[in-house]
Amino acid sequence: MVAARFRCLGEPMRLKILRALQDGGEKSVTQLVAELGATQANVSKHLKTLVEAGILARRPQGTTVYYRIAAPEIFELCEVVCDTLAAQLSTQAERLGLRVLQRRRT
């Protein structure tokens, strides 16, 4: 199950979808397609994977389906990974004598 969760998060488009839904609201496929600049088929495929993994929930309303975050703790995991990567990059940059830009938190 752990490996499946990490595999699910290993796709950049899925991370973009999570980011688009991070504010806690719901969005339809149409809204996500417009925001992400991806095709409807591609976004739908990734939404299905995220729902099956239990990371997103879906709510049909008429002919529209709305998606929302079902596992908000996923952002804590992403934060840990990002912080670890930022520290690693900072260390590498220091070794090379480069100036490091701080990561923005949102």
Automatic annotation (TrEMBL):
SMART domains per record: HTH_ARSR
Record-annotated HTH arsR-type domain positions: 1-89
GO molecular-function terms, A-Z: DNA binding; DNA-binding transcription factor activity
UniProtKB keywords: DNA-binding, Transcription, Transcription regulation
Pfam families: HTH_5
Top-rank taxon: Bacteria
InterPro entries in the cross-refs: ArsR-like_HTH, HTH_ArsR_DNA-bd_dom, Metal_resp_trans_reg, WH-like_DNA-bd_sf, WH_DNA-bd_sf
NCBIfam families the record matches: HTH_metalloreg
Protein name per its UniProtKB record: Transcriptional regulator, ArsR family
Organism: Pyrinomonas methylaliphatogenes
